[in-house]
Amino acid sequence: MIPMTLAQIAQAVGGTLHDVDDPSATVTGTVEFDSRTVTPGGLFLALPGAHTDGHDHAAGAVASGAAAVLAARPVGVPAIVVEPLGASGSGALALEHDRDGSGAAVLEALARLARASVDRLTAESGLTVVGVTGSSGKTSTKDLLAAVLAPLGAVVAPPGSFNNELGHPWTALRADGDTRFLVLEMSARGRGHIAALAKSAPPRIGVVLNVGTAHLGEFGSREAIAETKGELPASLPSAADGGVAILNADDPLVAAMASRTKARVVLVGLSSNADVRATDVHLDEQARASFTLECAAGAVPVTLAVHGEHHVGNALAAAAVALECGASLDQIAAALGGARAVSGRRMDVRDRADGVTVVNDSYNANPDSMRAAIKALVTMARSAAGAPRRTWAVLGEMAELGDDAVVEHDAIGRFAVRLDVTKMVIVGPGRPVRAMYQGAIMEGSWGDEAVHVPDTAAAIAFLEQELRAGDLVLVKASQSVGLWEVADAVLAAPVADSVSTGEGAVQ
């Protein structure tokens, strides 16, 4: 955050000063919503939570060094106070535990503060803001973007998937006068959400990766999802003002967003009409892609260090942004080749001493990312020297699919069997999970293509008995399932005695 006085912050957020002796006191530290992480000279956000209210921790935050508190009521210590928005909140800013709209008011003030800081940094320091959205791949692409932009200057990007109405402005306020690039993920749970995020930290470059079925239950249709994702290109400045929309040429719903923006459009993908495209795509034994990156500036070979063919599209999007920011093709190829998975539990591939490989992709799941992960698993098994390795898909529920949940889970079960996954371990209760198990059984020929267990503990116990040296294990589900416990347990388990030959079903 650019240093600002308490008076300047109050003016920016539309608040009033309370218990402030010196309005010219400057906030020089970070903005935090956890009183335990407050830094000297920082600003503490008083937000309501499930078990505690940040207003109750305001005094402690100031005692720990905070210059002031951003709150919805006076708290007895220096504070910028904004008016609560009422019990209904304010659209995208409504919070689950926000009874009187105080949390929504603080979040709205946070967005205004982020806007004030970003506007000044853009004008005074030439900050470039890059926004990324899509049904899947946002976090991985954000990590790749940070890697390809780093050779050009200091980059601020969110940790993990901090991409909502709190994480987005919080990340924007991490940028300071030394920051050249601010990379922001932009998520949505409904229409207007991405537009609101874009207002708090206006991007000059916007990336739309894909339109899939993630959050289908909240949106109702892929068309509604596309309408919302298209809020990003619609928010960009005109081409004359430097706006650039990076759109996926291989996704018709994304490519059609070109009509919604005044920015210059750059298409990326495998299609022949893509401005930045990949040709000669190959996968190695770890499902890491190599390809030739082609664009108007020339062509360069690229070998990715991340796992899964789906990362080719993410890499092309990152490359297109880097080209717009002045990177050379050689810089881009080197950065992409050295970029590893930074955010945890996303195609995190690790080996045990006995050769068992665990692919931990348990951070989140939707039908598109589930298929991509299963394809990567099978590719890794078939690329091994000698006989194919046995493959295990340990899968849990994909949340927020609404009325399509049963059909989508059934389809994933069938998909895994068609790709010849050796055994599926379906974890958890509920009708959608049972549908995934039934889909696998109905698609298979022998009736033992899948096993259904009630919880992670049962999955761990089953795998401890069944895994052999050299097996490949994919672990994937929505974050709420907590399936990473299985991945952690398998990696920590004693090594197996026998070696997998890849032959036959598991009995």
Structure write-up:
With 507 residues, the protein is α/β, with parallel strands linked by helices. 34% of the residues lie in helices and 20% in strands. It has 17 helices and 22 strands. The protein has helices at residues 6-13, 58-63, 102-125, 138-149, 167-172, 193-200, 216-219, 222-229, 231-235, 252-255, 311-324, 329-338, 367-382, 405-418, 431-443, 456-466, 484-492; strands spanning 4-5, 16-18, 26-27, 31-32, 43-45, 68-71, 79-81, 128-133, 155-156, 181-185, 205-208, 244-248, 264-269, 276-283, 288-295, 298-307, 348-351, 357-360, 391-395, 423-427, 450-453, 472-476. The longest helix is centred in the first third of the chain and has 24 residues, at 102-125. It is globular.
Question: What keyword list fits this structure?
Answer:
507 residues, 20% strand, six-stranded mixed β-sheet, alpha/beta
Mean pLDDT: 92
Given the C-alpha coordinates, what overall shape results? globular
Biggest pleated-sheet summary = 9 strands, mixed
Structural class: alpha/beta
- The total of helices stands at 17
Percentage of residues in helical conformation: 25-40%
Q: Main sheet: which strands, in order across?
A: 9-10-8-11-12-13-14-15-16
Strand content: 15-25%
